[in-house]
Design brief:
alpha/beta; Rossmann fold; 14 helices; single chain; two-stranded antiparallel sheet; 15% strand; 8-stranded mixed β-sheet
């Protein structure tokens, strides 16, 4: 049997072109090299649980978006873990509904694309992981699994503030089992947990032992620090170095379920409107092709566009279009200079050939 090999450049290009799932937070998307990639294990943890939950629900609601809107165009599975008497954890319908509406998705339709499984104790956790694993293996539409606070069910400390080794091993076994099923089906896994130490000067490691830190491919710690600054620390990533960004989330809006529509969504809405009302009205096919080229430029440079201090989205789009046009002009000027240089060389070679020919004929 013939063995086929893939070189490193091909692997890199596959990763660069792979679909990314947006967090709806531009700063966090940038930290994650564009968002969550299919077939990766991402660990998100911190001591501000409402903020972590808001990001997890963004993943769940964005998963069903088409890939051109930075979704996975598929179904998401939520494995929700917690103490029901204390938290009444099932699914936050208010937050999910708000997020779906901000995406332009009917809540009834959107919630149908989220499979929710709950576990309130250790025994239920094992059964829930088994059920989630079965869904991943049998449903071809599943693209994302979110495991919320699974370690929390096992790692409650005793009176001495210690956690038994057996409990840690149980968590590791369940997460490894869930990750194996996701990896086999190229499904993204996002897990959340608490930090091992709270209120530490530096980002603490996640609860769950060293095994969990090695198992996860991407690891982000979110902390509230001085002056209530919300900071996201990238601690592990296959293609990015460790760094930190500040997140801008209104804490009161997180609690109420209100969210500002992200620039990414506003831009996509404007492009869709222009596609329907402007592009289709263009007579010449070449002008429609030119519009498509601008749309690609807007998509590629949305990060810079979101930071521009310009009043409206359409004005930012005009600015980006002007920059793209200037780039095209400079590319043409570079090409013109190359052609001019080649022409001058041809003229010089031709003059030398003529001189050599005259010299040869005169000697004869």
């Amino acid at each position: 049997m013939r063995t086929e090999f893939t070189n490193g450049l091909q692997v890199l290009r596959q990763h660069e072109t792979a679909p990314r799932l947006t967090t709806s937070l531009l700063e966090l998307d940038s930290l994650l090299a564009g968002g969550v990639e299919l077939g990766t294990f991402n660990l998100l943890y911190g001591d501000d649980e409402p903020v972590i939950d808001r990001i997890l629900y963004s993943f769940l609601c964005n998963c069903q978006l088409p890939q051109e809107k930075y979704g996975f165009d598929g179904t998401a599975v939520l494995l929700n873990c917690g103490n029901y008497r204390q938290e009444q954890v099932l699914i936050d319908l208010k937050l999910a509904t708000t997020l779906l509406r901000s995406n332009g998705v009917d809540p009834a339709t959107g919630l149908d694309q989220i499979v929710a499984i709950s576990a309130f104790n250790e025994d239920q956790a094992a059964e829930s992981v088994e059920e989630a694993t079965k869904i991943v293996k049998t449903d071809d539409q599943v693209r994302l699994v979110v495991a919320r606070n699974l370690p929390k069910l096992f790692l409650a400390s005793d009176a001495r503030g210690e956690v038994g080794l057996e409990r840690i091993q149980q968590v590791q076994h369940l997460l490894a089992k869930l990750w194996q099923a996701c990896a086999e089906r190229n499904v993204a896994l996002v897990a959340s947990c608490r930090p091992r130490r709270r209120n530490s000067l530096r980002p603490s490691s996640p609860e769950g032992g060293v095994f969990l830190r090695h198992l996860a491919q991407v690891m982000v710690c979110i902390r509230t620090e001085q002056r209530n600054r919300l900071l996201a620390y990238l601690l592990k990533h296959p293609k990015r170095q460790s760094r930190m960004v500040e997140l801008f989330i209104n804490q009161s809006d997180v609690g109420m379920g209100r969210l500002t529509i992200p620039f990414r969504s506003q831009l996509q809405q404007e492009v869709d409107n222009l596609n329907r009302s402007f592009k289709e009205a263009l007579i010449e096919p070449a002008r429609r092709d030119a519009f498509d080229s601008l749309a690609r430029a807007w998509t590629a440079e949305q990060g810079a566009m979101s930071y521009a201090k310009v009043p409206s989205v359409i004005e930012v789009m005009l600015l980006a279009a002007a920059v793209d046009n200037r780039k095209a002009i400079e590319d043409l000027e570079d090409e013109n200079r190359k052609l001019r240089s080649q022409l001058e060389k041809v003229q010089s070679d031709l003059a030398e050939a003529r001189f050599a020919f005259k010299t040869l004929t005169s000697t004869e």
